[in-house]
Amino acid sequence: MMLKSKIHHARVTARDLNYIGSIFIDEALLEKANILPYEKVEVINVSNGNRWETYAGAAQKGSGIVSVNGGGARLCYEGDLLIILAYEMTERLDEKPTMIRVDHNNHFVEYLS
Fold this sequence. Notes:
Number of helices: 1
Order of helices and strands: EEEHEEEEEE
CATH architecture: Beta Barrel
Helix content: under 10%
Largest sheet: 9 strands, mixed
Shape: globular
CATH topology: Barwin-like endoglucanases
């Protein structure tokens, strides 16, 4: 199991405890980070140390939305910083993951090496 994708320091823009689950992420960020809608992701809350797994959902492209839903909404607050990770089973151990950094409005800044 190897790291495939990473979105570094995404900021929570909304929480919805009553939604059935997932984390909605600006579609432009999903594309840049090589994460597919419905793909399993691990979410790490840098602001408080909470970690959980869920699946990615696509929010409006270019919106900067990172909305945590369902049970995950209890693990964060609006404004918290998240690291969002996706993994894959692979035998190509020399393959580098796609890792991106975003700004405080959740817009792409750069690829990380």
